[in-house]
Write a structure and sequence with these properties.
It catalyses: an alpha-L-fucoside + H2O = L-fucose + an alcohol; a neolactoside IV(2)-alpha-Fuc-nLc4Cer(d18:1(4E)) + H2O = a neolactoside nLc4Cer(d18:1(4E)) + L-fucose; a neolactoside IV(2)-alpha-Fuc-nLc4Cer(d18:0) + H2O = a neolactoside nLc4Cer(d18:0) + L-fucose. Mean pLDDT is 94; it is low at 1-20. The chain has helices at 28-31, 38-43, 64-70, 74-83, 104-113, 151-159, 179-186, 193-210, 225-228, 230-239, 306-318, 337-353; strands spanning 8-13, 16-21, 45-49, 118-124, 166-172, 214-218, 248-249, 281-286, 321-327, 374-379, 384-389, 397-400, 411-414, 419-420, 422-424, 430-433, 448-453. The protein has two domains: 8-356, TIM Barrel (Alpha-Beta Barrel); 374-453, Immunoglobulin-like (Sandwich). Strand 8, helix 11 (306-318) and strand 9 form a beta-alpha-beta unit. The relative contact order is 0.12. Helix 3 (64-70) packs across helix 4 (74-83). By secondary structure, it is of the alpha/beta class.
Length: 456
Amino acid sequence: MAVAHSLRFVVLLLGVTYCICKRYEPTWESIDSRPIPGWYDEAKLGIFIHWGVFSVPSFGSEWFWWYWQGRKLQPYVDFMNKNYPPGFTYADFAPMFTAEFFDAKQWVDMFASSGAKYIVLTTKHHEGFTLWGSKYSFNWNAVDVGPRRDLVDELASALRKNTDLHLGLYHSLFEWFHPLFREDAANVFKTNYFPTTKSLPELYELIMKYKPEVLWSDGDGGAPDKYWNSTGFLAWLYNESPVKDTVVTNDRWGAGTICQHGGYYTCSDRYSPGHLLKHKWESCMTIDKRSWGFRRDAALQDYLSTEEIIKSLVETVSCGGNLLLNVGPTHDGRIVPIFEERLRQLGQWMKVNGEAIYSTTAWRAQNDTVTPALWYTYGPNEKAVYAITLSWPTNGSIILGAPKVSAGQTQVALLGYKQLKWEPVAAGGLRVYMPQLSPSEMPCSWAWTLKLTGAS
């Protein structure tokens, strides 16, 4: 695992070893100079988990409360009028958030089976309900109402028994209807009652209690980073916190910081640039195309297929990013079978093709200019170029236009199968002859990887 705190210099003086460590100042220039911990870039795949009181109505979106009471969108108003009595409030959903079927070990086993290397749990979404017994969220947290359990602790404890997974925690800076935030907003954020008494204390509490290795910030409410004291908090996180050497952060630390400041960039939900970026980035995306939280009204066509998920993973990694794939559990703590199927099928693919994903780097070409839907990664440990084709060729061969090959040195193998025959093509590159395989002989069912050694 790479040391992320800073570059460290060891000096020998009078037989004593000293460590001179860079300290980060509360400025974006200093904060942005911190290297990304190596484990994160090697991981490539994470699981996002959106869970909260919004999982009770489980209708439309995890933004249910805002769409119902904030924007008063008609489908949400009609849903409440039809199904709940007059005077029913959003807070009345909280006792129904029961989590009686939540089994942290079962969740962790499922996430590990997907091939993911880290998870990110929504400890608090914009509704303000915390999944741990926060001292700053009296009677609006999972210990005081609903499950009456510390759900963050249960998942963190189960995850740490699986050494292959890193713990990540999501935290929303703002809350839609918190009176202190609304007062600050009315004052055009010239006052900071909310961050100093609620949001920042929660962040310190999360770090000290659970020691996450990913801190996924979100929800600035239109307030600038100075209002949130983001650089001050991050300087503490990188200098003093118990996870200062391993923690990774994103870029959502106030209005104008996204895709500009922080750790890795997210830029926008479901971000997919299609080309190599100079800065480390992450694509957070949902299996349910329309919502991050669980929806009872979701139809089959609303879910991404396994093939579509693998396509997103391949394109993201080829362009230097990580994929954070979201599932939405039910109010009672279940991850429904369609999510489980997608995760386990993704894991089956990763068992064959993970060599072309984990610990790879972007190659000089991201996708092939001759054959469409063919993406490249590079494995420095194997000194191999990986060409991942999203479709099996129908004519028995596939042309790779980007690699430079040598007849005496280059070898081509199909991951999960064996060495393949190839020949150079006049325009440059090579033609690889694919084997004739029955469905049962195929190494995997979606996207196939050619491993090239001795190529440049």
